[in-house]
Amino acid sequence: MLTVPNALSALRLALVPVFAVLILTGHDLWALAVLAVSGASDWLDGRLARRWRQVTRLGQVLDPAADRLFILATLLGMALRDLVPWWLVAVIVARDLLILALGPPLARLGHGPLPVSDLGKAATFALLYAFPLILLSSVGGHVGAVARPLGWAFALWGTALYWWAGLRYAAQVRAMLRARREVDSGTGARSGSAP
């Protein structure tokens, strides 16, 4: 459990409240720097875990948890400063609530959280690129003019991919539940027919 990739994920979790304070107090450049460090550690921890064969169950839980908390903190901080609309917060939080609701059925199956799919990783990547760009658009001038449309393109694509990945995850859980019911009903039928 004490691996470099897990330490990087833990660092990212620790940076969430730091980022929240920075963005809420208007220290945008420092907030951007924290986002950049978080994004780099997100890329690095996955790469190191695969290269050094240090993929752990803890890492598979910590990594997406850190991503989701960063996305939530960023969204709330930016919405409170009127940089993004509240409907975007609602759409992304609703998707995370869907994933959270799938936890109890998975637990009943004796299964932990499913691994993050490539589609989910792409969605997270897009969203974590979108927010710094949208934050940068508040600078104004030529930088802001370029950053704003790019940021919103990443945000809208990322949100669509985020939901697509979530619905695929839900479909996986549903298929697992159906398979379990079929096994259980088959077992019940066989035990009922036994002399």
TrEMBL record:
<feature type="transmembrane region" description="Helical">
    <location>
        <begin position="151"/>
        <end position="171"/>
    </location>
</feature>
<keyword id="KW-1208">Phospholipid metabolism</keyword>
<dbReference type="Pfam" id="PF01066">
    <property type="entry name" value="CDP-OH_P_transf"/>
</dbReference>
<keyword id="KW-1133">Transmembrane helix</keyword>
<feature type="transmembrane region" description="Helical">
    <location>
        <begin position="119"/>
        <end position="139"/>
    </location>
</feature>
<keyword id="KW-0444">Lipid biosynthesis</keyword>
<protein>
    <submittedName>
        <fullName>CDP-alcohol phosphatidyltransferase family protein</fullName>
    </submittedName>
</protein>
<dbReference type="GO" id="GO:0016020">
    <property type="term" value="C:membrane"/>
</dbReference>
<keyword id="KW-0812">Transmembrane</keyword>
<keyword id="KW-0594">Phospholipid biosynthesis</keyword>
<dbReference type="InterPro" id="IPR043130">
    <property type="entry name" value="CDP-OH_PTrfase_TM_dom"/>
</dbReference>
<dbReference type="GO" id="GO:0008444">
    <property type="term" value="F:CDP-diacylglycerol-glycerol-3-phosphate 3-phosphatidyltransferase activity"/>
</dbReference>
<keyword id="KW-0443">Lipid metabolism</keyword>
<dbReference type="InterPro" id="IPR050324">
    <property type="entry name" value="CDP-alcohol_PTase-I"/>
</dbReference>
<keyword id="KW-0808">Transferase</keyword>
<dbReference type="InterPro" id="IPR000462">
    <property type="entry name" value="CDP-OH_P_trans"/>
</dbReference>
<keyword id="KW-0472">Membrane</keyword>
<feature type="transmembrane region" description="Helical">
    <location>
        <begin position="15"/>
        <end position="40"/>
    </location>
</feature>
<dbReference type="InterPro" id="IPR048254">
    <property type="entry name" value="CDP_ALCOHOL_P_TRANSF_CS"/>
</dbReference>
<dbReference type="GO" id="GO:0046474">
    <property type="term" value="P:glycerophospholipid biosynthetic process"/>
</dbReference>
<feature type="transmembrane region" description="Helical">
    <location>
        <begin position="86"/>
        <end position="107"/>
    </location>
</feature>
<dbReference type="InterPro" id="IPR004570">
    <property type="entry name" value="Phosphatidylglycerol_P_synth"/>
</dbReference>
<comment type="similarity">
    <text>Belongs to the CDP-alcohol phosphatidyltransferase class-I family.</text>
</comment>
